[in-house]
Amino acid sequence: MMRQLPLDLSVRDRPSFENFWAAENGAALAAARALAQGRPGPLYLYGPEGCGKTHLLAAVARAVQGGGPCAFLSLAHVSSMGWQSLADLPPDSTVCVDDMEALAGHADGEQQLFVLFETLAPARRIVLAGRSNPAGLSLARDDLRTRLASGPIVAMRRLSDEVKAQALCHRASLRGLHLNDVACAYLLAHGPRDPRALFALLEDLDRETLADGRRLTIPYLRAILARP
């Protein structure tokens, strides 16, 4: 059978507030929306891997596009590129900072992040995320820790399998991809455990079903997951 050449559909599943399944993380979603809509920061989100921190940071960046300068920075990457880039951002920027734990042991990084906070004053439209709250970060500067804690600090929880199933069906429906309960349960049992990888799998399924012109049955899912 001839396979249809699929279009690039990934734009439909880029992180946004609309495709974030809040469940027990509704407070984090509301706080991120408020900052994107102009509420002064900082906002600090923390929680384990897979709870949706990076998704919300990316959603903030997407929501403010066109409304002024915006930067999305992973400190894990900034540490290898040079910390000066933190202090070079325009004062009217909206700044999204991920992987705060990567700041540990980097005095230059702490200095430049402190400078960034002062540069962004008074609005300080900055949202930061890490695995631990500001009190739990390995920081040498107490004045930086104070600034990190000067706005809302919101804990986020890892998705349970039940919530993952709800989020998976929600993201699939936004793509126009029908994923029934049986297919969803199969993906949770046999697909990746990490939510980010699980949601990325939807893009592959969307592309494969469009190319093959087939529905998502269990045998078809099994065949797709077995592909190299």
UniProtKB/TrEMBL annotation:
<dbReference type="Pfam" id="PF00308">
    <property type="entry name" value="Bac_DnaA"/>
</dbReference>
<dbReference type="InterPro" id="IPR055199">
    <property type="entry name" value="Hda_lid"/>
</dbReference>
<feature type="domain" description="AAA+ ATPase">
    <location>
        <begin position="39"/>
        <end position="160"/>
    </location>
</feature>
<protein>
    <submittedName>
        <fullName>DnaA regulatory inactivator Hda</fullName>
    </submittedName>
</protein>
<dbReference type="InterPro" id="IPR013317">
    <property type="entry name" value="DnaA_dom"/>
</dbReference>
<dbReference type="InterPro" id="IPR017788">
    <property type="entry name" value="Hda"/>
</dbReference>
<dbReference type="GO" id="GO:0006270">
    <property type="term" value="P:DNA replication initiation"/>
</dbReference>
<dbReference type="Pfam" id="PF22688">
    <property type="entry name" value="Hda_lid"/>
</dbReference>
<dbReference type="InterPro" id="IPR003593">
    <property type="entry name" value="AAA+_ATPase"/>
</dbReference>
<dbReference type="GO" id="GO:0032297">
    <property type="term" value="P:negative regulation of DNA-templated DNA replication initiation"/>
</dbReference>
<dbReference type="InterPro" id="IPR027417">
    <property type="entry name" value="P-loop_NTPase"/>
</dbReference>
